[in-house]
Amino acid sequence: MIEWDDTFEPAWWQRGAIYQIYPRSFADGDGDGVGDVRGITAHLDYVVELGAEAIWLSPLFRSPMADFGYDIADFCAVDPLFGTLDDFDRLVAETHARGVRVVLDFVPNHSSDRHPWFEASRSSREDPKRNWYVWRDGAADGGPPNDWRARFAAVGPAWTFDERTGQWYLHSFTPHQPDLNWDNPAVEAAMHAVLRFWLDRRVDGFRLDAIPLIAKDPELRDAGDAPTGPSAPEKVFRPRRRDQDWDTIADRLRGIRRVIDAYEDRMLVGEVYLYDLKRILSYVAGGDRLHLAHNFVFAQLPWDAARFRAAIDDFEAAAAGRAWPAWFLANHDTPRVASRFDEDGQGSTRARAVAVMLYLLRGTPFIYQGEELGLPDAEIPPDRVVDVDGRDPERAPIPWRPPSIAGPGAAFTTGEPWLPLVADAARLNVESQATDPRSTLSLVRRLAALRAATPALQTGGQRTIDAGADVLAWVRDGDGERLLAAVNFSLAPIALRVGGAVGSDATVVLSSDPDRAESDVEADALVLRPSEALVLRPRD
Ligand code: NOJ
Minimal CA–CA distance to 235: which of 294, 173, 297, 283? Predict the structure, then answer.
């Protein structure tokens, strides 16, 4: 068992933020309107200025792009749209030269239907690759073999009938993403080889896509009253489902861990999209599975101080010092924070408060590209919609420079961007924010610098404190240092009542409100502004 006290030396993946790059929308190096590897390499200094410890790259492997790269036709090749393997090697070298790590997306549950493995598998019932995917006869009524539903509502059943061999194949996402059969040891071995291919190219870790899905009921029984498929916006724990998170998961995670442990200092973070903390924690249990699991209970919370506090306390209580938190509130699959929490026009203010929360909590913050700019979701006209599951708005390209100077592509591209940019690129672009000390980008840079300079924020302990109904407040302690962070979830000013947590003489180290000066204050007399998040340090 690994336990973290308040004196340990943090691993790279514990020190600071991991910055998620969605390659299609980050930076376009060749003017075709789609981001690419060279575009990322050209902007690495931006990542360094953000103080990120690592970049996590969403898939850039060869793909027909039915799910924008999550449908992979060759797990060991870079898609020509994104560049070449040489471009990739250069990206890794340049990233490492800046002291930043590279984390790749590993998509173990499915391939593209155009992957040679699937093409062989579907060619005949006798093909040696037949059992690499999940094929079954239909039900007696002529329908699909069971009641499992695909994760995308628009897809419907998780099965497609294939005329050629007269059987159905399983796909937890679109029909272009057939599920690999992890009950077949040859599949597990082949996917381990994929990991080694990238580890040999000096990749530092992997984000494991849809990882609960690699373990399913081998009997493929009906889900029955354990529903499958997409559920309500706020998901609640349901009985364990038969189409994922089966008991075989633990050994499969151990197998993946053994592969990466043959290399030095590598890391695994899982997209463990379960809504039960105990099950999430089981993916990081024992020190022989994953290092981190994205906390989807936290990620879907409504804007409510008590709910956030409970999620943080629940994690600490259940983890009991043996699991390291991985906090995120946005990625390429969820509406952006500034839009999601936009009731009463508070979106951009709350996005700033969220940044304070993510960097100040004990654990690793995951920052999705554009969150550091406070981007909202983009408006996508009906004729520009490309995603099957409504996720285009959060995938709008990064505006690098004012369109008035750089043209309509805002220096994301010199061509026609594959998705429209956010409406307010004139104000929200990187160049304008970088020179504005009041901007969200400047705030995030200060947060990263504060965390880097403050051991208590990297490794220190944490305890939430009572500070009134609408305030989330917590103390970080370690290395002889103490800081207090507080977030006002309400639209009204609130007197900060933190008892003796920081003593009465304190200094505001940082605030999400650009009008709050860094200054000495009397903690007991401090009034939090609406939606403000701030950090206090006791003055001795
Ligand atoms: C989760 C990814 O984040 C999402 O974008 C993708 O569509 C599915 N997994 C399928 O790979």
Answer: 297
